[in-house]
Design a protein that fits this description.
mainly alpha; two-stranded parallel ribbon; 11 helices
């Protein structure tokens, strides 16, 4: 029975073509694998959740009853409200830590789902994608932790001077989680541009022509991604993405030049005409052409039939 099932199983297409049902099945398998790994890392994070919570709470200037003038009088107090607040806080912290720790796995699953649709020479960039994707995401997470203290201080400064802000962990954690995930995913944007150039969807020349719009779009994105209206936090997020964007443009231009040596038409934009070979080649002389088969004589055309009607008088 097992031999019959193996024999009836359709062979894989060498070019990665699959039916819609196969694509959906492949997507389901990739998502399940990613979720299982995230669950495993979340369980590990639950064991060390106290240490993770202390790291997350460091950006908050905690009020010291013995020294009210600490932090210039601008401090906050983290306080839980309700019986389940601490448990919910623990789960959110562990789940976010699991997603961040499992970055290499779910990035690989994402690329493995897309890779079968690429050409064979394009699949070799899988290791490059993996080697750059995880460090870039973690760099974005590190940048979020650099910005978080300034963001918290700016948000606390809006409170009246005579009051002490009391921060529920859920509210603070929602801001911290959004910053960590948004910063991490934003740092993947230049890598996405490089991958689009590698598969031939966009050229480096076109990416360079978009630089004004890209700089403006990154600036607007950073303004919305940072919770505070303070320009320093916005610049701390936008500046690395600007730099990574121009690095991606440089890599795309280099890749286009490398491909243009082998095929000049690959580096052309859609509006540009391809190169035509208009050089004149000398003709040495007439060439004899031999018939592959003897000509077949056509059938004789029958003479037209003459029909005549008798006169009826």
């Amino acid at each position: 029975m097992s031999k019959l099932s193996k024999a009836s199983k359709a062979p894989k297409d060498p070019e990665g073509r699959m039916a819609l049902a196969d694509h959906l099945r492949e997507l389901r398998n990739r998502v399940v694998k990613s979720v299982l790994v995230i669950v495993v890392f979340t369980i590990v994070a639950l064991i060390f959740h106290k240490h993770i919570e202390s790291v997350l709470l460091k950006p908050i200037p905690q009020c010291d009853p013995d020294d009210p003038t600490k932090y210039g009088g601008r401090c906050a107090q983290v306080s839980t409200v309700g019986l389940t607040a601490g448990f919910n806080w623990m789960l959110k912290v562990a789940l976010t830590a699991g997603v961040v720790a499992a970055v290499p796995v779910w990035l690989y699953q994402l690329w493995a789902f897309v890779a079968p649709g690429l050409h064979k020479h394009e699949r070799k960039y899988t290791m490059i994608f993996m080697a750059c994707g995880a460090p870039l995401f973690l760099a974005g997470v590190g940048c979020a932790f650099l910005v978080m203290p300034t963001t918290v201080e700016v948000l606390i400064s809006f409170a009246p001077t005579e009051t002490t802000p009391i921060l529920p962990p859920d509210d603070y954690f929602d801001i911290a989680t959004r910053m960590v995930l948004v910063f991490g995913l934003a740092f993947e944007f230049p890598l996405l541009l490089v991958m689009l150039n590698v598969v031939g969807m966009v050229t480096g020349k076109r990416l360079l022509g978009w630089w004004r719009g890209m700089v403006m779009a990154i600036t607007v994105f950073a303004a919305f991604a940072t919770p505070s209206a303070e320009p320093v936090s916005m610049l701390v997020m936008a500046a690395p993405i600007w730099a990574l964007y121009f690095v991606a443009v440089g890599i795309a231009l280099f890749n286009d030049k490398r491909r243009a040596r082998r095929n000049p038409d690959l580096a052309l934009d859609d509006e540009e005409a391809s190169h035509l070979d208009l050089s004149v080649q000398s003709v040495s002389g007439p060439e004899a052409v031999e018939a592959s088969a003897a000509p077949v004589a056509s059938a004789p055309v029958p003479a037209a039939r003459h029909e005549q009607m008798d006169d009826i008088t």
